[in-house]
Amino acid sequence: MAGGPDTARPLPTLPVALLLGALTFNMALCFINTNVMGINDTMVMGCEVVLVATALYLGLGRNAAPYLLLAVFFSYAALLMAMRPLIDPKAVRDFLIPIAFYLLGRSCNDIRLADRAAFLSGLVVVAFGLFEFLALDAYVSYFNIIKYYVARGTVAPSEVSSQTGALFASGLRPDARTLLPFLGPHRASSVFLEPISTGNFGAILYIWTLNRPEMARRWLTMAAGLTAVVLSDSRFGANVCIAATAAYLAAPITPRFVWLAAPFVMLTGLAVYGFTSAEVSWQNNFAGRLLWTAKLVTSLSPEAVWGLSPEKPFLSDSGYAYSLNQIGLLGAIGFWSLFIFAPESSPRAWRFKVCVATYICLLMIVSDSVYSIKTAALLWFMTGSSDADAGAEPAPAATAAAAPAYSAATAG
User: Fold this and answer.
1) For the chain, what are the domain ranges?
2) Would you say 229 and 199 are in contact if contact means Cβ atoms under 8 Å apart?
3) Residue 333: closest CA among 320, 343, 345
4) 148-170: pLDDT as tens digits
5) What are phi and psi of 89, to 5 degrees?
6) Residues 177, 183: contact at Cβ < 8 Å?
7) Which among 11, 177, 225, 387 is least buried, having the fewest CB atoms inside 10 angstroms?
8) pTM of the model as a whole
9) How far from 40 is each of 14, 47, 345, CA to CA, in Å?
C-alpha cells in the first residue's frame, strides 16, 4: 500500500457498521418476529430505505458526476413508470443499491475498509452458520425463518412445507448433498435466512481475497468464504470460485469489449435456446436451471423486454428475465456499460471487476439475488473501493503488456 499520512489515519467505523447492518438486518427482524412482535413488509422496506439512504449520504461528495448519474437514473425510472403505467418502487430500489454502495466504497478512499468489512462479515456469517448447523433446534427457536417470510409477504401460508419445518424451502437439499455429503441434507442459512445467499456470499469473499494478496487476515477471510459455501452446500458458489479464478487469470489479456458484451451474448443464447428447445420439464441441476431461465426469458412479451409491461410475473429464478422486465433492455445496457467502463485506478482493480462480472453473469442464470442488499451491499462497496484504490502493487509482465489498452479504456 502507498505510504503517507492517509495510510496512518484511523479507519472510520460507520461504513463498516452500515455494511454489517445490511448483512444482518433481516436476521434481526426475524428475531423480533419470532420472539417479540409481528413484523410486515413495510418494516423490511423501511430498513432498506434507511440503509440505502445512509449509503448515498455518505457516498455523495462534491463531485457533480454522481448527482448527474442519479438524475439520469431517476428520470429514466420515472419515464418507465409513466409509460407502463405502474408505480414500482422496487425497480428503483433494486438498481439504487449498486449505485449507493459503489459510491460509498469509492468515496471512502481506503481499501482497508473493504478488507475489514469482508473479514468481520465472514466471521459473523460463519459463526451463525455453525450455530445453526450444530444446534438447529436452538437456532430456529430464536429465528423461525419461514414464519418471518410469511409475515413479510414473500411466502404464502399455503406454500409452507412441514418437511422443512421452520427453515426456508431451500434449507434442506431434497437430493444428495454435493459438498461433503456426510454433513447431511441440511443447508445452513446463517444470517441470510436462506442458503442461496450464504453460498453467494462465500463466493464474493473468495473473489475479494483472490484479488487482495496484501490484505490482512487474507487466508482466514478466504477460509470463511469457502466455509460458507460448504455449509450452505452451494454448488453455484463452488462453481463461481472456479470460474472467477479462470477469469482472474484471463483478465489481463481479454479486451474490455468482451466483458461489455458477455451478459448480452448469454441473453441471446438463452433466447435462442428457449425458442428452439423442445424440452418441457427440467431438473434441479445446472442444465435444468439453464432451460428454466431460457423459458422465462422467452416468455416475456415485447413490452416486457423494453421494461414497459405493467405485468409483474414471478421471474426470480432468472436474473436476465427479471432485469429486462424491471428496467428494459436499454436500461440494462446502460447500467452494465457504466459498470464496465467506470474508471479504475489500477490494473488489479480491473481484474477484480472481471471476477465480479463473471459472478453476475453466472448468477443471473439462476436467480435475481444479484439485487439482494444482503450480499449486494458488500459486493458493490468492494467494487467501489477497488476502483478507487491506486495503491495496488505494480502489474505483472502479462498485465503490463496490456497496459496501453487499459489506459485507453479508462482515459476520459
Assistant:
1) 14-410
2) yes
3) 320
4) 999 988 887 877 777 778 888 88
5) -60, -25
6) yes
7) 11
8) 0.89
9) 27, 11, 43
